[in-house]
What we know:
Elements: H1 3-8, E1 11-16, H2 22-38, E2 43-48, H3 53-65, E3 70-73, H4 84-91, E4 95-96, H5 101-108, H6 110-119, E5 127-131, H7 133-136, H8 140-154, E6 158-162, E7 172-174, H9 177-187, E8 193-198, E9 203-210, E10 213-214, E11 218-221, H10 229-233, E12 239-241, H11 248-264, E13 270-277, E14 283-289, H12 299-306, H13 311-324
Parallel strand pairs: 1-2, 1-3, 3-4
Antiparallel strand pairs: 5-8, 6-7, 6-8, 9-10, 9-11, 9-13, 11-12, 13-14
Amino acid sequence: MTSLAKKIGRVAVLMGGDSAEREVSLKSGQAALEALLRQGIDAFALDVHFNNSADYGTICQQLSTQKIDVAFIALHGRGGEDGVIQAVLESLNIAYTGCDVSASAIGMDKYKTKLLWAGSGLATPPFQRIKAEQIHTKTQYNIDILLTQLETSLGFPVIVKPAHEGSSIGINKANNKTELFKALKVGIEFDNEILVEQWVIGKEYTGAVLDDQVLPLIRLETSRDFYDYHAKYMSDDTLYHCPSGLSEELEQHYQSLILEAFQCLGAQAWGRVDFMCDASDKLWLIEINTVPGLTNHSLVPMAAQQNGIDFDELIVQIIKASLTDE
Length: 326
């Protein structure tokens, strides 16, 4: 056994789950598992399910009966990124990667994330939260009032997002009230809370954070309206610019804001913050991802590579950073 393998111990890679991001999670988990095995680390996969209360008992039994020194969380979306699995692991006194219960729960909630950022003086596009009952139980007259109110306060276009989903699932752009109503109806298929956010005209970027350091920024370029699910996982024409093309001064300025936004939520070890830059080079925070993807289209490995960190080393650094932050 190598000294690295001895130091880290036995690793359970938690993947899969039951969220809308299950397939992406399986790919991320498998990639992390293979990276650990290549380095001689004792690691195994565990597909975690949260369909009902009985599943929690099964999860606890699986985790408590295995010898586990560290749980590498590769679960995206609900159950794995929202503080649930983190709470289970803490109750079993098992160390795990990434953010703690509180930061995970906040980071998964786009509305609460933006409230904290705005309250801390960090720029994020104007927004409003809409609850499912405002769409389901209202008359057409009341819905028209709601749509008019959103148009008045936010203008068009807007972007409509389920408040607790990732991977751009259920997200749509709306250019008018008809499209806004359709986007809200799509959104409530995924969540009971919807975030309606003012559209920012500008360039899309992402900043990966690893052990309190912001890696080289990536500028995203897609032929679609925005960096949606198709652009992330299916398109072959999405371009990733890393280096980002920003001046050194501007890149460093953005990196400092990204770290501030990350730490403002209590996030730790690793993650990713997505943002927009308008024509005047003002940064607008969009959202945080506390368990970023690790697929062949994923952004954190890309930024790490630019910093001279290959994929295998990245996985180890995530574990080390998480254990340091305990």
